[in-house]
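DATA SHEET
Item: assembly model
Revision: 1
Owner: S.N.
Input lines:
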Amino acid sequence: MKGRTIIWYVLAFLVVALVTPWIGPEEVSFSNMTEFLQEIRTPGGEIFWNQRLPRVLLALLAGGTLAVVGASFQVLFRNPLVEPFTLRISGGAALGAFLTISFPGVWFVWGPFGSIQLFAVLGAAAALFFIYSLARKPQGMSVTTLLLAGVTISIICGGAILLLTYLANPNALMVFQRWMMGGLDIIGFRELFSLGPLLLPGLYLLFFHANDLNHIALSEEIALGQGVEVSRVRRNIFIGGGLATAAVVSLVGPIAFVGLIVPHAVRRLSGFDHRLVLPAAFCLGGTALAVCDAFARTLIAPTELPVGIITAIIGGPLFIHLLVSRRWR
Amino acid sequence: MNSLIELKDIHHRFQESEWELDLPNIQLFPGEILGIIGPNGSGKTTLLRIAAGILRPHQGIALLCRQNLTHMDRRTVARHLGYLPQELSSEYDFSVEDLVRMGRYPHVSAMGRLGPTDLQVIQASLEATGMEHLRQRSLSKLSGGEKTRAFLASVLAQKPELLLLDEPTAALDMHHQVRFFRLLQSLAEKEMGIAVVTHDINLASLFSHRLLLLKEGRCLALGTPDEVLTEANVRDIYGDDILMQSHPETGSPTLLARKPEKIKK
């Protein structure tokens, strides 16, 4: 466990948080930003406060969450190639989202939740619950069953989505396809707050077990001997990671690779102490996604790319490098 | 004398398996080394896991310091009992010091913050196992003997009253095997109770106060090495190809392989 270098991660996080809201196709001047606070409305100030800032915050939060879940799941499943979406609860989220999109009758807004988001959360939660109850055994969870159950759920959801695709009208298809690409374009802070009820308990569970994760990373049998309640820790990390992923995926869609690559980068840089790895992964994951999103906004300006395309294009080769070099430990 | 651990009429079987473990009363006392021997599949590891509270037996009671193991949480168990499984490897390449620090788990807060007492215990554990000069070394760069001692240092940091060790010397050469058993002997002299599973009958016979001989899930003999390693028992377990001898220095029973017979044409 190398020296406490969390400060550099925090610094990168803060710099990106301060710089990226200024990046985008539209010019925003500093005076625009400050004028907005004095109730002088300019397009620039509007864009900064109601589009860029919430969007950057969402990127930081979503990227950070995915990286923390990835770091925890890689230890939990004893597999370096696991990421938040390996559990396939995103299949449930996609199905929920598509149902809402195909049947506009259910469009509504409930508190901070839009209907697409709410149904995506419900779909993800249902998938999570099914996977968990399938894999639960008296002796604890079986990792193999867990992954197989995830794949099965994902196939079922995929089938249902294909059916809906066949039946749905082209407009709904467009909206759904766009949702699947992942996006961080939110307006105002309402949707950010809607993440809270699932994201906060989820992240809390993961961070609470950061030290236990070290012991499980060592070896589950030895961890038992050292006094770790392994089955309880595993259950909490599974549920915590599932909740956090459900929250993120319901709002931004499946964004690939952040949750896979970032934890490995952090472990390479700072060792295996997950009390450091988890917060560092949060900072670096948020940083990475916010930077990718800044590219997504500017690369083909004035139009923008879905950020999922950027992360996949950057993350894919990195993943292959990881796979081939086999130096992930 | 109060036993550290007591197994009462333990009975266990695994799902979809004919194999059964059936044990009489077994106790482990402070300052005692109990060698657990027997062929593969005789139930040595299962017995150890039950005694460590990791496996819950179908019948019978395991008492740790006179408390029922099944009602104790893992953290409390770990303060009394140090357990080392057979497989001592980690997917992540921790350093020796990290490993030993992790042994303090049952004594510290959820985030594992260590105080001055903890650091003293860690230092003492490293010194007791002769691992102090290797504290910064990562596990993957240790030899077999060093690795075993590093993990032993880690369980010692738990400050247990008894140790349950599953074939700790299996991967070691003879020199390191003897060294390791000497280390166990010095711990037993400080009133620690040690149950050690091993395939090395001779070392077990030399260093153990008592031996437990298992065969097919049953206890064949329990007592001093002289009582357990009789001609009859040895023949029962290992067949006719083994020769019984006395250790030239201690007189403890020692086994040798018989000279191979000439191939008859």
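QC remark: The mean pLDDT of chain A is 81.
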